[in-house]
Amino acid sequence: MRPTRRDVSVRRGVLAAATISAAVAVAAPAGAVPGGDVPPVSPQAAAAGFVDVRTVVPDAVIDLRYATPHNFVGVPLYPADARCLVHESMAPGLAKAADELRAQGDVLVFWDCYRPHDVQVRMFDAVPNPAWVAKPGPYARSHEAGRSVDVTIAERGQLVDMGTDFDDFSARATAYATDGVSAAAQANRARLRTAMGAGGQERSDPGNGSGGLAVYSGEWWHFDGPGAGVQRPILDVPID
Ligand SMILES: [Zn+2]
């Protein structure tokens, strides 16, 4: 589904807001003990094997777009205090990615992590195109299983140029797009893919990977962890 003109103008506003919020978060004092200030996850989240990503990547910038109106649906889909929960199988790959970026002076920015099933249903109702929004099914996989994340890179408090904003439903948002994507943005996307894949081979052994996170070719910001594509029972885990 092509975006309407109104959608595009909304997204431009979103980019500015995200840049500012990322800058504020990155400017916060560093040196926190890993996971030291992070409250424990809910019993349901713990039972599902979920961890708060801040215990894995202590310098992560958490900017959950779906907890704000600044998303393609236009209204908050998560509670304001939603947190970035991921399945523990993503932890080694995310830690390695953050290490690699940190050595370059950069930090990971998380736009989305675990996504409750009812939110996926609302998203598909808003954009019923499976090329851009996963069609909800009778099982959980990817974000619904806490095994995929939407991320970008912040450098000196600013989001790097990736060529499009988050949830830009255009061909330029595909991971390996070249038309309309500057050489610098293509290089930044490659840098993100390299860092996210640092934990091991991508896609070589789906469901039993060594920890590396693989980009979804349809969206430069979406990365799947080990076993992300496996169909699992739908979860009922609160996101806050
Ligand atoms: Zn995603």
From TrEMBL:
Active-site residues, record numbering mapped to chain: 219
Catalyses:
D-alanyl-D-alanine + H2O = 2 D-alanine
Cofactor annotation comment: Binds 1 zinc ion per subunit.
Q: Which UniProt keywords apply?
A: Cell wall biogenesis/degradation, Dipeptidase, Hydrolase, Metal-binding, Metalloprotease, Protease, Signal, Zinc
Q: Which cofactor does it need?
A: Zn(2+)
Q: Where does Zn(2+) bind?
A: 143, 150, 222
What is the annotated signal peptide range for this record? 1-27
Q: Which domain of life is it from?
A: Bacteria
Tell me which InterPro entries the record gives. Answer: A_A_dipeptidase, TAT_signal, Zn_M74/Hedgehog-like
Q: Where is this site: Transition state stabilizer?
A: 115
Pfam families xrefs: Peptidase_M15
> Which Enzyme Commission number(s) are listed?
3.4.13.22
Q: Which function does this protein serve?
A: Catalyzes hydrolysis of the D-alanyl-D-alanine dipeptide.
Give the family this protein belongs to, as stated in its UniProt record: Belongs to the peptidase M15D family.
Protein name (record): D-alanyl-D-alanine dipeptidase
Taxonomic placement: Bacteria, Bacillati, Actinomycetota, Actinomycetes, Mycobacteriales
